Structure to design on (406 residues):
């Protein structure tokens, strides 16, 4: 693993060029959170010249307040830092209430706790199919394995042919790699490819509709709002948005959890003995290793926070990854605490009308992966360099892991 004590703060000249925060600096496992902790106490409303310029809210109270005021802090101008949307509006994240509401009404029905519980046997089968060869081989890059899971889950949930699900897996992997490498040309190209995938899904359901009670694309096509179907281009955008939003974060978090478990074998052994604690552990991991740090809003008028005035129209990153370690809310916030009493206050899934619709599924995916990985192994060991993601995600892009089968 890389040296976590390496200097991470820019020189004075560099700081003058990039402002309070440089999101383009190379990172190691702890460096981003070291910087966030410093800024929460010295500059909790930071500004950066990177990515065309943006503000960053780093304290829990400020992020939570913005999430509670969707009419002031809107998402329809820019929904993420850096801005990566090049091709049309994609509901519901690119729309503000009430325009986004009919799309969320449909989506929410398919991610209830009950539906996720009913889906868990299928989810567990998919996880086991991925983990068994990984464990039998003695390990490998866990993130490479984990990145296949969301596409397979997506294919099952959307009732897709196997080939189409495989296309989604491959294309989203290239899309994410291009984001991490700041390769705008490939980001744009793969984004268009994902639109073609979404078009294929929509056309499939137009010609072969399924019961809207059981199939989300069919439900979007059947939805009537204000006496009319949802606009075709926005149904397409919704499918396109869902493909990407659910694809990247799971593998990022899974890799980071594995690093922590490798460094804390007593915790891993306890979860092996008491798998009923895994859900609680996952909740603390979501707080500690929140995978998003750049979801954005734009203020509709000038706002003053912590003595700094943010002009209307300028992008504001809501840095969930910083807010969830804010020592004013979470004591000893940089440490994993299995029995943390106020864990329900974390913002890993955002808040307000744009709170993540798939949070129940995300929790289930992470819990099942941790349960099955630990059940199949006696030990985990990181054997090489852990590569970190860049904005807008935080977490691991590559985790070379050696495992001893159980």
């Amino acid at each position: 693993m890389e040296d976590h004590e390496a200097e991470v703060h820019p020189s004075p000249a560099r700081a003058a060029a990039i402002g309070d925060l440089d999101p383009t600096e190379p990172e190691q496992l702890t460096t981003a959170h070291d910087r966030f902790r410093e800024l929460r106490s010295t500059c909790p409303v930071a500004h950066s010249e990177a990515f065309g310029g943006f503000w960053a809210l780093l304290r829990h109270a400020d992020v939570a307040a913005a999430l509670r005021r969707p009419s002031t802090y809107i998402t329809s101008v820019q929904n993420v830092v850096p801005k990566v949307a090049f091709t049309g509006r994609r509901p519901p994240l690119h729309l503000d209430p009430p325009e986004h509401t009919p799309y969320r009404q449909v989506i929410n029905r398919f991610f209830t706790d009950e539906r996720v519980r009913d889906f868990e046997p299928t989810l567990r089968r998919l996880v086991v199919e991925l983990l068994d060869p990984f464990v039998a081989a003695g390990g490998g890059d866990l993130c490479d394995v984990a990145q296949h899971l969301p596409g397979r889950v997506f294919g099952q949930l959307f009732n897709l042919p196997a080939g189409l699900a495989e296309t989604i897996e491959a294309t989203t992997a290239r899309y994410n790699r291009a984001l991490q490498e700041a390769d705008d040309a490939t980001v744009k190209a793969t984004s268009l490819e994902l639109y073609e995938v979404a078009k294929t899904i929509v056309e499939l359901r137009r010609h072969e509709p399924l019961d809207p009670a059981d199939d989300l694309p069919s439900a979007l096509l059947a939805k009537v709002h204000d006496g009319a179907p949802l606009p075709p281009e926005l149904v397409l955008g919704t499918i396109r948005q869902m493909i990407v939003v659910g694809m990247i974060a799971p593998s990022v978090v899974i890799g980071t959890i594995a690093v922590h478990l490798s460094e804390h074998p007593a915790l891993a052994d306890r979860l092996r003995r008491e798998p009923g604690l895994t859900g609680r552990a996952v909740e603390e991991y979501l707080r500690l290793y929140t995978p998003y740090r750049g979801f954005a809003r734009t203020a509709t008028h000038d706002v003053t926070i912590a003595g700094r005035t943010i002009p209307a129209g300028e992008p504001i990153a809501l840095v969930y990854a910083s807010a969830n370690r804010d020592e004013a809310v979470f004591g000893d916030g940089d440490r994993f605490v299995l029995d943390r009493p106020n864990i329900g206050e974390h913002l890993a899934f955002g808040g307000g009308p744009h709170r993540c619709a798939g949070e129940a599924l995300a929790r289930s995916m992470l819990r099942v992966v941790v349960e099955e990985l630990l059940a199949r192994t006696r030990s985990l060991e990181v054997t090489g360099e852990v590569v970190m993601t860049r904005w807008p995600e935080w977490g691991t892009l590559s985790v070379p892991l050696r495992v001893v089968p159980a």
